[in-house]
## 1
Amino acid sequence: MGRQPCCEKVGLKKGPWTAEEDQKLVAFLLSHGHCCWRLVPKLAGLLRCGKSCRLRWTNYLRPDLKRGLLSDDEEKLVIDLHSQLGNRWSKIAARLPGRTDNEIKNHWNTHIRKKLKKMGLDPVTHQPVAASRADPLQDPQQDPHCDGKASSQESAGYGTGASAEEEALTSAEPKQGATCSASTASAVSPSPCSSSSASASASAATPGGADVDWPDPLDLFQVDAIIDMDWASILSGSGGGGDIGVDLFDQCSDVGFDQEVWM
DNA sequence: AAACGAATCAACCGCATGTCT
DNA sequence: CAGACATGCGGTTGATTCGTT
């Protein structure tokens, strides 16, 4: 038997998120947190798969995200971490508070790689190109379409050597970025520094430029407590979620949802 | 002003990993 | 231990924006 798809793709919306969808997702996650992503779109009233919701939240809507270009310090840190960890973007992102793996990956591919090349360094090995590559014309990274294969092979190479190093790194340094990692508990932990910028950029980047009525930033600080308490009430239908909890618990029973998990 | 190519970045896809039964 | 499932991760794609001619 094959693996089940992450969601039923029939009738699900794809492509760029609208302001309305963003608003629904943010409003839902801020008031309820998330239990399992597969249920989030149903509970939030979105025609998206859970995966898509998670991605949108972690990469774009999370209130603790910084926006804008990486600072010089951040960029240096990324380069340094990349030299140690390879293409483990999530590990790198965990060290940069408010940055996402996707953002760092994009920044690496568009900016840093070029910079390193200009400096005569191989962006993969971080060694001078002459030393690491005999024939620059054969450089597979000149062709973006070959790049993926090259980098995945190379990152596999990193993978063999990086784990011990990575563990040392992880244990040695204070996890400043841990609050921004993708762990369940931290996913909705806001920081005061960036909620407004997240709101601004989210609405700015919304297709059509429509403004969104974002929640008061002060509300963001209540989310952790909400996560602890509100899923039980929403799913039992007795709490702030109102009817939605009852309806959706019924709906979700057919996907193996166990109410007791959230009680 | 229009056309074109390059650059950027949000979003998707498929696989890997972790957890539970 | 094996299978099922949910989530996370990294690579890639494609739409949009920007810069140049």
## 2
Amino acid sequence: MAKEKHPTRERILDAAEELFANKGYEGVSVRQIMRQADADVSLAYYHFKSKQDLFDQVMLRRVEYLNSIRLKALEAVEERHPDDAPSVEEIIDAFTHPLLDLLAKEHDEWKYYFQLIAQINNSPEWGGELMTRYFDPLVRRFIDALRKALPDCDEQDLFWSYHFLSGALTLTFAETKRIDNLSGGVCRSSDMASINERMPAFLAAGFKALCSR
Amino acid sequence: MAKEKHPTRERILDAAEELFANKGYEGVSVRQIMRQADADVSLAYYHFKSKQDLFDQVMLRRVEYLNSIRLKALEAVEERHPDDAPSVEEIIDAFTHPLLDLLAKEHDEWKYYFQLIAQINNSPEWGGELMTRYFDPLVRRFIDALRKALPDCDEQDLFWSYHFLSGALTLTFAETKRIDNLSGGVCRSSDMASINERMPAFLAAGFKALCSR
DNA sequence: ATAAAAATTCAACGCTCGTTGAATGGTAGT
DNA sequence: ACTACCATTCAACGAGCGTTGAATTTTTAT
């Protein structure tokens, strides 16, 4: 496993990320995290202020990079269309593709982070606030782009469409293997290439259907 | 509040349902549940075998009724089409409408149960297994109906489409208020009528787009 | 080599956790 | 009135919780 490559602080973040993703914030103790990180319990409180702070740092570690690559993907699409508006599908693809590509890598570096986001997005307690805090500016940027691509779209239709998109995307992150059972092995939760092929088309059709009623 | 109407066992289930939905299974203690149910801690272990059993009974209490009304809705749609196949939108509507109607009631009887389902569906740990156990027969029935409505659809496209549907639907259950913030008040998470108007059309367009590529 | 700073270890705090067993009250049938 | 039986209360168990302070080792800078 060669765990000793990383400095302690990162090993703690790695362990916390994986365990929070699997069991939820309350389902994991600091002691369990530090056991997995192979370090003394009190080191958690040397490197972080509290369990909650550790959780926050797990979230923050990756969120900026995530937002930056998604913004770049959107800007690239827009630069490809200096005159007209990009298609709905292109915009949605810029929103989802960067994430699914990270998940498609053979190592698990991003897997647990996205599982965590899936849980947060669907948590009545923290879902609204955390997702807003971390992703709102980027999401507004994408919705602006979609509004331009669908100039006659009612605002409610636009936001509800994004809501459906968000649900479909984050359930994909959870990788619960439900679809593996349901499909009898025809589909696999971890098969991001298949999702990449299908999700933007599926969602773009939904946007267009709602916004041109 | 007039809590004393219900027998103890139901009061415990009510309290557990609400607290599990808000904080997750591990985020709530049996003591908290019994405090909210206004009963002694040990009564939890008189009426239920363990905390896990209490959770299971919370799930089981409503799942049969849920499956029965959704099956009836599908059968009603099919009876309306004795010769041809029902439309994709009608089938999806039968899948979602009964649930959203329960959520639309002014009291909160069903709210917490659906929030719980939203969390479970997106939980890497239990999501696949629990959802499969409780909803698989019904879901297979609906997918069969959709397959008939989309006879040329590839199996992978069909299952992935259902996956996107499931994500969109369960995020709606979570009622995280994220869309309230994002839309600046234009949309409200609790506005099931608005979702009822839009979700079947959105998802049906997605199914059709994927299945006729 | 030495002093300062960073990282790690050890022991412990008060508290809550899930769970249990034994004692008590209430209610129905005889 | 007596007896079962169902429902509830009370007290407690060992274990694990988040967190802290002080002592110790390791690294860095002079």
## 3
Amino acid sequence: MSVNALSASPATPARDQVLATALRLFTEKGYFNTSVQDVVRESGVSTGSIYHHFKDKEGIAKALYDGLVLRMGSAFEAIVSQYRTPGDRCRAVIEYLFEMTESEPEIMAFMLYAKHREFMPEEAPICSSRPFELMRNMVSDAMDSGELLPLDPLVAATAVFGGALRMINLRLDGILDKPLPTYLDEVWQCAWRSVAA
Amino acid sequence: MSVNALSASPATPARDQVLATALRLFTEKGYFNTSVQDVVRESGVSTGSIYHHFKDKEGIAKALYDGLVLRMGSAFEAIVSQYRTPGDRCRAVIEYLFEMTESEPEIMAFMLYAKHREFMPEEAPICSSRPFELMRNMVSDAMDSGELLPLDPLVAATAVFGGALRMINLRLDGILDKPLPTYLDEVWQCAWRSVAA
DNA sequence: GTCTATATCCAGATAGAC
DNA sequence: GTCTATCTGGATATAGAC
């Protein structure tokens, strides 16, 4: 992926370098164990330059987060355009998440694993973000069309996606040796069977 | 619950005060946003006393964590003694987790939601801890006895417990207004249906 | 065991030349 | 826009009396 895709704002080389480095360090060591000096050293961008591009350390995290939420939202919208039935859409979302976890583990760790509110106190929980809203909509659509059992919509959504999200956690924690797509069919069968009418 | 239950080590009033305060602050503001001074102020125990009882700030977190893992392990072992079939055991585990989330949200937040390795670098991921091992065993037993479809054991375990764990996250994030036990039946039906033979 | 006072360090952030 | 040098606060942790 292009480093541009890390941010929602106009890209410059220095800015991109900082974002790419911060993403790596934030996921490797955690936000609080990463000092701005660490980012300076590993990105090759000076302190002054960093504070020229970002308001403060939190601003780096926010820029990363906003860019990635946007990117994931677009990906899910593309899935909605490409697939017609809610079931196909949900499956495609899980497939996308599994593939992203293998190809861009740092992004997935930062998006799904980090405790954003600890370092971005103003941020809404990620489950209220656009991509998660789209996921819940897919499940609600399926229920409205009668494909699913009549359940509390949130229960249905967690039933469909909860197992997959746990599998991603296990993979990022190094508990699963095989790549996630290996498990896609089984995971999907379980997920859908749990709610199918 | 008794504050004693927060730690695996011999209890003293000061020690317990510190642990109870730390649990609250660590979950409210996060480990890194909590200074030892905060704990001093809110526990009423002095800096010197805290460092007499604990090696360092991380030592407070470790004592908390070890005590809580032990406690949850015992609870699950009690469930294993009390219920005979794997299905009943799994359901009882979810019920226990749901009830704990309502009665002791801080404990559940600290156990299931915190990123332990960020502040306790030597700690194994929580999914390798005893309670999680017991959960996986319940599912494997069910599969061996033919109650479940033949699946990868880890896929089956995440299918059974993944939805419930996501529901706990949603509840701790304030997304669900109703107490978790309200959803227990639906969640359990989905979970078991996803893997039942 | 508990306390107060304090040492030490390093983080985040800024100043101001180029 | 980028850099180096520097300020300042607050954090962890210790010393040593009681």
## 4
Amino acid sequence: MTKNKENNTEALILDAAKDIFQHKGMEGARMQEIADKAGINKAMLHYYYRSKQKLFEAVFKSAINLMAPKVVEIINTEEHLFDKIRNFTDKYITFISKHSYIPLFIINELRRNPEILKTTLDHNFDVSVRDKLREEIAILIQNKEIKPISAEQLFLDVISLCVFPIITKPLMTVILDKNNKQYDEIITQRKKYVADFIINAIKY
Amino acid sequence: MTKNKENNTEALILDAAKDIFQHKGMEGARMQEIADKAGINKAMLHYYYRSKQKLFEAVFKSAINLMAPKVVEIINTEEHLFDKIRNFTDKYITFISKHSYIPLFIINELRRNPEILKTTLDHNFDVSVRDKLREEIAILIQNKEIKPISAEQLFLDVISLCVFPIITKPLMTVILDKNNKQYDEIITQRKKYVADFIINAIKY
DNA sequence: GTCTATAATTTGATAGAC
DNA sequence: GTCTATCAAATTATAGAC
């Protein structure tokens, strides 16, 4: 069937493009390299995606749509905040470790083009999710379960502690004088460590 | 004097190259753009630095030599750990805010070329600094002033909480629904907030 | 839909005059 | 040391056969 073949090649190209773009960025990536990785001809990239820019945008959207739901998913559960934190740090560190190139890819592209998110993220991360977290925190503060902190700062803390040590692995292995395996073990330990750290920091 | 003129043009080129490379990366930067910014001819870049790669390396070394001493400086004081943390987070967030493009520049280049640090950083961040921090933490644990934590994890915590929210500003303004000014205010508040957060997390 | 061949442009680098 | 002019290579994009 023609339709299957179309989808197959198109998906093949996108997979190859993800790999190359996410590792080398927009400027560092070469269309020829993507074609080679996909095992097809360079002309096909233009047949399906018209230009390098359009292909890149498809990859970027795919990256955003992979990452954003993971954050929302856990915030939207009905657990106690402390359980949310434990769940999130564990799952998110595992997830980011598997896709360690994606956060940097997103951060970099956003610096090049700060507008690109406005057409992509708004639907995933809408007002209700933010408000829900703010309310939950407000109640816990009232009940004196946690210290008076802002939801924004806590959100930044959680994401920072999970993501930054993973994306800076090449730097941190040198600074901390660890080999790859030793550093991976440090990251594994963080799955539990970070949750305890945060909860100790905010609880009364 | 000829010598002055030499240094002047050379420095002019390096300044322009810092600006362009640190914002656009190795592949995104254009020699022509650097020449324009320096107000001189493109041929001059090659006269002083021979190739794009060599010019880039000069910029990278300059970035490392700007960042690394700041970390060592504060760790090497004789203050109590809690004061070190307060001092460091305050000064480091201020410093990184002023040079917000440099951390990402270093992280990205290290991913492209993980070997480059071995000839640059080793002298700045040597064994004695690491050992000193480890010892100090060991003593505080023994004295039951802080919970039993590893120096490596604490180091990662401190750097992550300071740097990540700054380099992800374009992403976080959208997620948290803040404008530039509001987000800068959040970062300013972190100068005190982060220290309290960390100390609460580790103290008995 | 897929391929080969090639056009069109960009860009790092150099030659050579002053 | 500095400039103009130009080369040579790389790279995106397209034309056209099958």
